[in-house]
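We treat protein structure as text, and this decision shapes the records that our systems exchange. This encoding replaces a full spatial description with a residue-level series of whole-number codes. Below, we set out a record of this kind in full and without editing:
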Amino acid sequence: MRCPFLKETLVGQCARSTPRAMIARPPAATEKCSSAAYVSCPVYREQHLDAASGTCPFLHESQVQYCSAAPVKRFIPLNDSPRSRCASDAHRYCDLYLELANAAASSEGRRVRDMFLPGHLLYSPNHMWFDPGAGDTWHSGIDAFAAKVLHLVEGVNFVTLPGQDRPAVAITAHGVELQIVFPFPLPVTATHDYVRARPEALTEDPYGQGWLFEGNAAVAGPLLDCEAASEWIRREVDRLSEFVATRPAGSGPARCADGGYFADDVLAHLSREETLRLFHEFFSSESRLEARS
């Protein structure tokens, strides 16, 4: 499925002009270059050629693609257009598309308390999601449970760079740097640098503008579908609530006012050591895989 903002048009450019600008024109357009009037063009007359047809010999026409949502149109010749997210379902992770279409919010899925799990995604045992896509491009990020626990993200740094095969990200929350690693090897072709400039997107929109990694032609290991993940996350909520309930008395209100579930800003009430222990327990790929084996 291609992006609805991807459009095609016919452009013309003069092979003798500088710069060689592309000018969009409908197929039925008639102007100086495509009519007998081209003989009066100063650029043509400099060549001292005899008129041979009703169209200027220096007029080159080609079919191009462009993004109608972009503030500035950038024409790409159709024949030279590389395989991109615009022409596949990967367009759903384009920042412009996410901003204008709000696609992630309209996805079907399951809700666990105030956390949403899109139905088309798969989920890893350390709270990362994986979208295999309908083509060759996959995407990944953190799930709503991880976003709820992090709550306030101060910085994002990618440990895995394009060309490497184990997606890993270092996230700073409440002054503590925490690393989350996808539990299976995946070839990474791009990281979403948008979240480095705007780290709050990681928790505000984890399935949309907060995505982290992109890659090609990969098959992840055993993952949970939405239905199984929703039941598992219900248990994770209870387990984390029990985790904060067993903290020493006087450590601070890491649970909601009713004393039931963990508070949204749970990390703000934990010491550095407690935060690291929590992340090892819930978000370490190795420990979670052991727990499921």
Remarks:
- The chain has a mean pLDDT of 80.
- Helices lie at 42-45, 95-101, 144-150, 194-197, 201-204, 226-245, 272-283, 285-292.
